[in-house]
Amino acid sequence: MLLDEPTSALGPKTAGEVLAVLQELAEAAMTRIVVTYELGFARHAADRVILMNGGRIAHQAPVDDVFSGPAPERVERFLSRMPT
């Protein structure tokens, strides 16, 4: 399933419902590709995160590694500016 900004313009309650559905799909082993700028959502919805820059992959790793592991300097700067 491919989703592009599935929580844009949604309130917190509805965004939480979308997250719950995505987690159910993950438990059912459905592959999901979600494009989002909401890193807090990605942290809870993803198994793996791919950060893009200029149409190229800047960094990719399992979700826990992206938010707590070492990353290229440019990626670390980007993550430090984003609310999570």
Report on this model:
- By secondary structure, the protein is α+β, with helices and mostly antiparallel strands.
- The chain has a single domain, classed as P-loop containing nucleotide triphosphate hydrolases (Rossmann fold, 3-Layer(aba) Sandwich).
- It has helices at 12-27, 39-45, 63-68, 73-81; strands at 2-4, 33-35, 48-53, 56-62.
- The strands form two sheets. Strands 1-2 form a two-stranded parallel ribbon. The chain has a two-stranded antiparallel sheet with strand order 3-4.
- α1 links the parallel β1 and β2.
- The longest helix has 16 residues, at 12-27.
- The relative contact order is 0.14.
- The model has no long low-confidence stretch (mean pLDDT 87).
Précis, in short:
The protein has four helices and four strands.
Query: What is the number of helices?
Result: 4
Distance between the termini: 24 Å
Question: What is the overall pLDDT average?
Answer: 87
What's the CATH superfamily, by name?
P-loop containing nucleotide triphosphate hydrolases
| Name given to the CATH architecture | 3-Layer(aba) Sandwich
Derived structural class:
alpha+beta
What is the C-level CATH assignment?
Answer: Alpha Beta
Q: Widest sheet: strand order? A: 1-2
Number of domains: 1
Please describe the structure with a list of short key phrases separated by commas or semicolons.
84 residues, Rossmann fold, alpha+beta
